[in-house]
């Protein structure tokens, strides 16, 4: 996943049921952006990557082989 912009953060907070205004969404995007930048070199190479929900899929795929 790439660094989220304020529009993406706004959509995610709306979907999660905690709507925020544009100013708060911009602050959230600026706060979490460095974490995404830090993981950019290894994104897509980790078994869990940035989505922990896929962990079970990875583990089940390894077991079934």
Portion in strands: under 5%
Count of helical regions:
3
Domain module count = 1
SSE run: HHH
Commentary on this structure:
With 65 residues, the protein is an all-alpha fold. It has one domain. The protein is built from three helices and no strands. The protein is flat and about 40 Å long. The two termini are 28 Å apart. The mean pLDDT is 78.
Topology:
Blueprint: H1 6-15, H2 22-39, H3 55-64
Helix pairs in contact: 1-2
List keywords for this structure.
65 residues; mainly alpha; 58% helix
Short description:
With 65 residues, this protein is mainly α. It has helices at 6-15, 22-39, 55-64. The chain has one domain (6-64).
């Amino acid at each position: 996943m790439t660094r989220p912009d304020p529009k993406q953060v706004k959509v995610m907070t709306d979907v999660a049921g905690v709507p925020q205004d544009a100013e708060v969404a911009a602050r959230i995007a600026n706060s979490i952006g460095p974490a995404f930048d830090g993981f950019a070199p290894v994104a897509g190479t980790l078994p869990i990557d940035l989505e922990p929900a896929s962990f079970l899929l990875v583990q089940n795929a390894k077991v079934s082989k």
